[in-house]
Amino acid sequence: MKWSEAIEAYSVYLVVERAYSPRTCEAYRRDLTEFATLYAKREGRSPAVRSINTVDIRRHLAELFGVNSGSTIARKLSSLRGLFRFLVARGVVEGNPARAVRSPKRKKPLPRALDVDDVFRLVEAPDAKKSDATDKELSPLAARDRAILEVLYGSGVRVSELCALDIDDIDRRRYGSSGAIVEVRSGKGGKGRVVPLGSVAIAALDSYAAKRPELRHPKSGAQDPVALFLNQRGGRLTARSIQRLVSRYSLLAGTPPASPHSLRHSFATHLLDGGVDLRAIQELLGHASLASTQIYTKVSLDHLMSVYDAAHPHARSGDDD
Q1: Of 48, 76, 46, the residue nearest 63 (C-alpha)
Q2: Nearest to residue 85, comparing CAs of 97, 75, 74, 76?
Q3: Which domains does the chain have, with CATH numbers?
């Protein structure tokens, strides 16, 4: 099997059997194509799947040092491991030459979580878009933006999951006006879950729902009939648009730089600070492993230490006995 054929077969497997997102599949394809390019440049020939060994992979990673970060190199090694694991399972090769190669150590930066007051200022920032001081109604776009910010913080969903939400994914039958359930059908790895949503987010969604019909294509009047969050032309919002939206409102609100992911981190951190069990937070975030959720214990402890240092008399340096 040629290297290009192996990449193509693996890409189909990731999409069809593993339900990976197009963005993730493209990253894997890019990493594996880069391996072939550098191999051909070094060896003078294209790589043959059956002839690649551990030394070839170590040489490839050595070429990446100084060019890529440790985390990027680790991801590229993961791409090679995944490809050969797939080829072993299909009987194309006998062993995985990437398995014996150690991944470089990666620094794990702590998630950036906003303070509660900063989150409140951020989610309320669309209110500044009212036309004048006497106007009590938000514009359709401002109402949409307020609902987006409230749902991001109120449910902790990923930005890709938010974009994929349909109107029917908000289930209010179980709790009425006091809350709702968000049905996340397009979770990471194709795994769905349900997440509670509080009354404040529900109120923001109600305000947006009343104005959603106004978001239509200016010429044709077309509108996506099922998507929950629409752009001003009546189509489903993209992740990039929501990222820009959150960044813009963080500037407007005067908060530290924020993103949809930092609102997700804030959701988890504030729940942990409030005493919610780590296993419950794992379920709410849709983490496959508890190890992914445990990083929030460190975030919460850091917050606790900063509060202690600011408040406890014996924690402040320079105090006299």
Answers
A1: 76
A2: 97
A3: 3-89 (1.10.150), 116-310 (1.10.443.10)
Decide if pLDDT at 319 tops 50: no
Whose structure tokens read 């359709």? 140
pLDDT band at 290 (very low <50, low <70, confident <90, very high): confident
Instruction: Exactly one of 158, 212, 265, 270 is catalytic; name it.
Output: 158
- Where do we find the tokens 């990039």? 240
Catalytic-role residue among 216, 264, 265, 270:
264
Which tokens belong to 310? 């600011």
Q: Is 296 a catalytic residue?
A: yes
DSSP notation for 163-188: HH-BGGGEE-TTTGGGEEEEEE-S-G
Q: Are strands 170-171 and 179-184 parallel, antiparallel or unpaired?
A: antiparallel
Interval 192-246: pLDDT, tens: 888 999 889 999 999 999 999 999 999 999 999 999 999 999 999 999 999 999 9
With a pLDDT cut of 90, the percent of the chain lying above it is 55
Helices (H) then strands (E): counts for the chain: 13, 3
Summary mean pLDDT of the chain = 86
Q: Quick one: tokens of 101?
A: 């190669």
